[in-house]
Amino acid sequence: EAAGIRVSAVVAVNALGGILDERANFIAGAMAADGSILSPAERLLEGKSGASWGSNTTLAAVVTNAALTKTQCGRAAMVAHDGFADAIWPVHTRFDGDTVFFASTSEREADLLVVEAMARVAVAGAIREGVKSAATAYGHTGLGGTR
């Protein structure tokens, strides 16, 4: 939130790529036998990608109180997509079906460039926070602990 403009994002992450922190260090992804995180390159070289066409995706829904037209929402969604690239590598592979949905409640006038930047940060932040809080389940280790 800034100057009365709010941008919120919720993201469902099942990306092929690993998840990066703000310094581009891997914080989540495929794990080696010793429990360390494999980089996507190591994962692919070891044949552990498990990838098949359409098997992975990251979906985001972004909402703002800024007054945006349908065209402006489309533009903001495109820029919000860059938040995927900030937090996932590799991103937008042929195995991923990445999508961003964007909505406006049209409550306050705002500069589109500001809303776009806020959306990008919100999406990357939602990815990182979601991964950090994910519980261990169904044989997959989560950073947020066990259920």
Give a description of the structure.
This protein has 147 residues and is of the alpha+beta class. It is built from four helices and six strands. It has helices at residues 40-45, 70-80, 82-87, 112-133; strands at 7-14, 18-20, 26-28, 57-66, 88-89, 99-108. The protein has a three-stranded mixed β-sheet, with helices on one face. Strands 3-2-5 form a three-stranded antiparallel β-sheet. Helix 2 crosses helix 4. It starts with 6 loop residues before the first strand and ends in a 14-residue tail after the last helix.
Task: Tell me the layout of helices and strands.
Layout: E1 7-14, E2 18-20, E3 26-28, H1 40-45, E4 57-66, H2 70-80, H3 82-87, E5 88-89, E6 99-108, H4 112-133
Parallel strand pairs: 4-6
Antiparallel strand pairs: 1-4, 2-3, 2-5
Q: Between the first and last Cα atoms, what is the distance in angstroms?
A: 32 Å
Per the principal axes of the C-alpha atoms, what is the gross shape? elongated
**Structure classification:** alpha+beta
Give the assembly state of these chains: single chain
- Report strand order across the widest sheet: 1-4-6
What level of helicity do the residues show? 25-40%
Strand content bin: 15-25%
